[in-house]
Design goal:
Elements (H helix, E strand, L loop, with lengths): L10 E5 L9 H18 L3 E4 L13 H11 L4 E8 L5 H14 L4 E6 L6 H8 L10 H13 L34 E5 L2 H10 L3 E3 L8 H11 L11 E9 L3 H19 L9 H6 L4 H11 L3 E3 L1 H15 L3 E5 L5 H14 L3
Parallel strand pairs: 1-2, 1-9, 2-3, 3-4, 4-5, 5-6, 6-7, 7-8, 7-9
Helix pairs in contact: 1-2, 1-12, 3-5, 6-7, 8-10, 11-12
Pfam families: Bac_luciferase
Protein name: Luciferase-like domain-containing protein
GO molecular function, one term: oxidoreductase activity, acting on paired donors, with incorporation or reduction of molecular oxygen
Length: about 350
Amino acid sequence: MTSPLNSPVPLSVLDLATVGTGHTASEALATSTELARRAEEWGFHRYWVAEHHSMPGVASASPAVLLAHLAAATSTIRLGSGGVMLPNHAPLVIAEQFGLLEALHPGRIDLGLGRAPGTDQATARALRRSAEALSVDDFPQQLAELIRFLDDSFPEGHPYARIHAIPGPVQGKVPGGVQSASRPPVWLLGSSGYSARLAGALGLPFSFAHHFSPANTLPALEIYRESFRPSEVLDKPYAMVAAGVIAADTEKEARSSARAGALAMLRLRTGRPGLFPSPEEADGYPFNELEREFVDSWLSNVIHGDRDKVRQGLDDLRALTDADELMLTSNVHGRERRLRSYEIVAQAHRS
């Protein structure tokens, strides 16, 4: 893969469809649509959306629905889930959803999978319908089942051998030969070593959530590369690192936006999720000592600043991780700030 931007590796976008205070989910989704169009123009490689539930500040609960809309609004950029939380769903349903997306937009769809619930335990139980289903111990089996549905490759005698995920690569098994030209590539996402090891063993591409689990980044990437076995998908490891990045015209403005993001995460981590706060809210928030420590720790892992500082931060992260691709999430309040952040990053890597 070559970089569409003039940078050492491809740069991509992870969008949470952030809903800020004073705004609606409809406005946030309109901003995401515009950002996807702009990201395509600016040369970003992929645009992924993530599954979250019961979070007022995140409007991307259903990645497949949002991806269908974004794909219709763009023409060349790759689109995908970063990710679908597989234990929340029946594998057949995901195979059908992403098979349909691939049939509508051939060669442009990625299926990134995670095993976390993307929410709190109570909401996870509502999604999965029982306390027993809250375990993720059978994730490898769920993944294997999903891949079988995507490839239409259950062996004869298997209980699902006569079941087909349509649209999909059904090759002569169904009268009329209903089939898609391709199927979406599967990625594994992770914030620890578990999915890293599984992705390596299966020869799949791997994306690590450095933006909220920086202490595990290098150990997980090492596990992935050491455990990698060549497959029909890849002949060598392909690691993408997701990073929090906030760029602005001045360092002061970037830090103000970054502090608002830290406040949003503080509220989430303390069980108070809400709409994404504005920089003005963050500036006026009465942080206590422990909260200030959390904010400082969070900000230390967010690349933020003006164009030159952000470019240096991305170069440093690339050098540290030897990533094959960087995926950037710029969670800031307001349409103009979000668009400008990604625009500055694109400019920095063209200069």
